[in-house]
Each structure stands twice: as C-alpha cells, then as structure tokens.
Amino acid sequence: MLSSNRLRVLLEIFRTGSIAGAARTMKLSPSAVSHQLAKLEEESGVGLVERNAQSLRLTEAGRRLALRAQEVADILEAAEKDLLAQARMDAGELRIGFFASAGYRLLPLALSRFAARYPNVALDLAEGQPYELLPDLERGALDVLVVFDHALDPWQRPEGVEVLHLFDEPQLLVVPTGHQAGQRSRVRLADLAEEPWITTFGAEHPVSILERASMLEGFTPRIRCRSDHYEVTIGLVRAGLGVALVPSLGLMGVTGVQVCRLATPQLFRRIGVARRPTNPNPAARSFLAYLRTAAAQLRNSLEPTLR
Length: 307
Fold this sequence. Notes:
By secondary structure, the protein is α/β, with parallel strands linked by helices. It folds into 3 domains: 4-87, Orthogonal Bundle (Arc Repressor Mutant, subunit A), CATH 1.10.10; 92-167 and 270-303, 3-Layer(aba) Sandwich (D-Maltodextrin-Binding Protein, domain 2), CATH 3.40.190.10; 170-267, Periplasmic binding protein-like II (D-Maltodextrin-Binding Protein, domain 2). The chain is built from 9 helices and 11 strands. The chain has helices at residues 4-16, 19-26, 30-44, 60-84, 106-117, 130-138, 209-216, 230-238, 282-299; strands at residues 49-51, 56-58, 93-98, 122-127, 144-150, 162-176, 196-199, 222-226, 243-247, 257-260, 268-275. Strands 3, 4, 5, 6, 7, 8, 9, 10 and 11 form a 9-stranded mixed β-sheet that branches. It has a two-stranded antiparallel sheet with strand order 1-2. The longest helix has 25 residues, at 60-84. The N and C termini lie far apart (66 Å). The model is unreliable at 303-307 (pLDDT under 50).
C-alpha cells in the first residue's frame, strides 16, 4: 500500500516544481524529501521523476499519481474537518478563478449574494484565462474556476476535474454607429470581409475565433489590432477603426456602438464552472448554487438591445 505521507511529498513536488520547493512547504530537508520520493518510487515500482543536473520533472506516471494524491489529500482533509466539526459555512476561505468578462457581471452578482449570506468566508480571487488557471485548480490552489470554451475550439477537461455547464453565450458583431450592417437582422461574417477587424490573440494558440470562423466562410480577415481587453476593442470600434466579434458578457452596459446578431450558429461560448469533485470545501459547494442562480438571471438578457 502506498504511504499517504509519501504521496503528499509527490504532490508538493508537483505543486512547487522542485524538491527544494516541496521541502520548504513541508518544513523538511531536501534530503528527507528525496529519500521519501525514492521510497515512493520503490513502493510504486515505476519511475515518478526525471532528473538531470539542472531540473527535475514528473514522468507521466508521476503526474497521474500526483493527481490521485490530490484526491487523497482532499478526502483526508474532509475527514479531518468532519472529525473536528470544522466544516462550518460561516468561516473558512473560498478561492475562485475567473476569466475577465465573467468579472463584469456574472461573478459580482453571485459573489455579492454569497458574501452577504456568509460574510466571514474569506474570498481569494484570481483573474486569468481558463487554460492559465486550470493547473491551479488541479493542484488545489483554487476551489472553483469559472471557464469558457468555444464551439469552434473546444478543450478537453483535465483528469480529476469536472465542468458544470451554466449557459451558452453568443458572440456578437460590434460595428461603429451608423454602419450599414446595423440595418440587418442577421449578418454573415463574409459580408464584412473587406473591413478592418479588431480581434483577440487566441488562447493556447495564435489563431483567434474570428479567424477560425472566417476560414469557414471562405475569407481571411484583415486584422488591424489584437487585444484581449474588450474595453480596448470596443473603444477602437467606437472610433471607427474597425469591426469586432465580442461575446455578450463583454458588452454589458456598452454605448456608442451598434451590436448585430450573427448568422453563424457555431459562434458562441459555453460558460461553465470547473471544480474537483473531491474538494471538501463546503463554501465551494454553496457558492456553486449562487453562481447557478446568477447565470440563470443573466441567461435571458445576454444579447443587449440593438441600437
């Protein structure tokens, strides 16, 4: 049987990226951590790390065992809280990751109600792209992560993580006030093939959703600017410098531009919340209910009034 203490050593190496980092976290000497790691490799019968003179990294077997070690750590933590009667909803900490446009209204709406009900739960918020924050969720540094993926660019959820769907969010076309596209009920991207575009950098690769959708409609967009900040994108469109695709969550409260619906059915984002099912934090479980309520409230008001 594998030792839970040695599994924790492997987990800390996974979290910190080094034996020295694990030693600092666990208040052990590096040699003690190395010894425990060697014993774990002996117990498991497989190599868990690859070593060279400058670095150390987990093998595939080591990474998979570290993910299982996180599940064991979650179960042990839950057991300790049950035994000590510490699993209280009026205290503790909740660590939430989220992408930027979820922070405009969805997350504040959920958090304002959650915080009013549980004022003594400390909130620790981290903003970033889902692919940037998923490793933090995997290794237990986050309790929940508000995520999205595109119908044209889906991603695979990591092992040990589940994603609960909240709603589908349409991408909308944003054009300067008075643009001829604003007179149509639905617009094809190809109708704006000659326009300059403001688009994003893409997520894990350099091709944006605009460029993927444009390829399907048979043209290559002329990119004038790339920005992952929707305030910048909308400001440039407002100034007449281009047109853009912007998801509905990024358009709440926006003025001075026209917003058009698209005739491309695949142009939407799936909004969800990722979590580790084994996470024992009771605040995380309660927060999900508030997030679902906020999502339901927003679902029918995502497309702004066309101006």
